[in-house]
Amino acid sequence: MGLTNNDVLKKIRVALKLRDDDIVEILKLVDFNISKSELNAFFRKEDHPKYMELQDQILRNFLNGLIIHKRGPMERKPQPPKKEKKD
């Protein structure tokens, strides 16, 4: 049996010693708002009545936010000058 998105989030949380506040702030970096109670539903056991399955979109947003949190925002590459057309 493979890892679920919930398992991946749990393992990252433990490995990086992240608190609920940290995860909420990381998600805010990519303009994704979530409450602590919604977040806690992802960390519950599967047989708990308030357990929620972590959707791909939330995990993707968390990972993108984590990149910004650890590395900082991506620098824009300078655009090459546009060539002018001569008639």
UniProtKB/TrEMBL annotation:
Top-rank lineage group of the source organism: Bacteria
InterPro entries: YehS-like
Official protein name in the record: DUF1456 family protein
